[in-house]
Design a protein that fits this description.
Length: 175
């Protein structure tokens, strides 16, 4: 199965350096434009289904991308396992320059917990689609770093080596 993995478009909160975590987020005009451009790029791809985080910024990105799709209507399935990392009381606040030192770690969802969410998601969809199927996934920056580590076989303790994908960045994987 071919996976087209996408980070949501830029949000108003991204532009203001606000930690969104599991808050909904609102696509900015730039984010909508990014999603429209990616939609044009993917319009002829044979996408069988789209799985998206249920957070508004990701679901809206998926809708915009697929609004340009030619051919059959692609179903969008919202899945909580594709959500962004939970940042606890830090959500909705501006990221300080050294956020790793400020955020109370006991409140923050671990990379391992996100990895378990993603493994569960992948194990569930794996038997549903064939080798020739293309599945689109829309999620979030930190979550997609964990996703990349899983596919690369990189230890989650080495996430610092994996850059956060840009807004509406597209990665391709094979499952």
């Amino acid at each position: 199965m071919r996976l087209l993995v996408i980070r949501h478009g830029e949000t108003e909160e991204n532009a203001r350096h606000i930690c969104q975590g599991q808050t909904p987020g609102t696509l900015s005009p730039k984010g909508k434009s990014q999603a429209e451009a990616l939609g044009r790029k993917l319009r002829k791809e044979p996408i069988a289904v789209c799985y998206s985080s249920d957070q508004r910024r990701a679901a809206d990105t998926a809708l915009i991308i697929l609004s340009a799709h030619e051919g059959k209507k692609v179903p969008i399935i919202l899945d909580t396992r594709l959500r962004e990392r939970y940042f606890g009381s830090f959500e909705g606040k501006v990221f300080p320059p050294y956020s790793d030192e400020v955020v109370p770690l006991e409140e923050v969802e671990t990379a391992e917990a996100i990895g378990e969410r993603l493994r569960s998601f992948l194990e569930e969809i794996k038997p549903l689609y064939g080798k020739e199927d293309t599945v689109m996934i829309v999620s979030h920056g930190f979550t997609l770093r964990v996703f990349a580590a899983l596919f690369r076989g990189t230890p989650l303790s080495s996430l610092g080596e994996i850059p956060t994908p840009g807004n509406c960045a597209l990665s391709e994987y094979f499952l």
